[in-house]
Design brief:
mainly alpha, 5 helices, 76% helix, 0% strand
Length: 197
């Protein structure tokens, strides 16, 4: 009987060890599955977050590109007006001449030249105001959509490292929008309250 009892005892010990090993394997499997689920969830969350950040960056980039292009257009317009001013400087060098008067009346300064000078100064002032008005309008529209925009950054011009080709492409992309915004500016009081002529 003793050999049989001893054999049964060894068999029970082997079964107990086997059961413990199975339980340990189950726990390890459950832990691995739990970690895998956690990693998958974290992957989904990170993917959604990255997609949101990417969209925000794209929107911010488009917004800055539009504002920069509008400011550049306004600067170019002012530069063109400045060139016209340089070409027309001759008006500043003209002195009113005295024209002979009939019937012995005393001569008087040439009023036409004075009026030309006055008109030219008014023209320059008006065009500077137009540039400021359009730039103000463009920046106000941008900030109404994106209140967190730093206008100081936009005022510094294009982003650093932007090539001339990329700059031109940005200008081409926003040209239609710039024309629509410029159409909102009523220079001569020719539109009604709805913006139509």
């Amino acid at each position: 009987m003793e050999p049989l009892v001893e054999e049964n005892k060894k068999l029970k010990e082997a079964m107990n060890r086997s059961e413990k090993n199975i339980q340990r394997a189950h726990r390890e499997r459950d832990l691995v599955e739990s970690n895998a689920r956690d990693l998958e969830y974290q992957k989904v969350v990170l993917s959604e977050h990255l997609a949101t950040v990417k969209e925000q960056l794209r929107s911010k980039s488009e917004q800055l590109a539009t504002a920069s292009t509008q400011l550049k257009d306004a600067s170019e317009q002012l530069e063109k007006l400045q060139k016209v001013f340089e070409e027309k400087k001759v008006l500043d060098c003209v002195e009113p001449e005295t024209a002979p008067q009939p019937d012995g009346r005393p001569p008087r300064p040439d009023i036409i030249v004075k009026r030309c000078k006055t008109a030219w100064e008014s023209f320059k002032s008006f065009n500077r105001d137009v540039v400021v008005t359009d730039a103000t309008h463009a920046l106000a529209v941008v900030q109404s959509h994106y209140p967190a925009t730093d206008l100081e950054v936009i005022g510094g011009g294009y982003a650093k490292g932007l090539s001339e080709a990329k700059t031109q492409r940005l200008e081409d992309e926003v040209e239609d929008t710039a024309k629509k915004l410029a159409g909102d500016t009523d220079l001569f009081g020719e539109t009604n309250g709805s913006g139509e002529a």
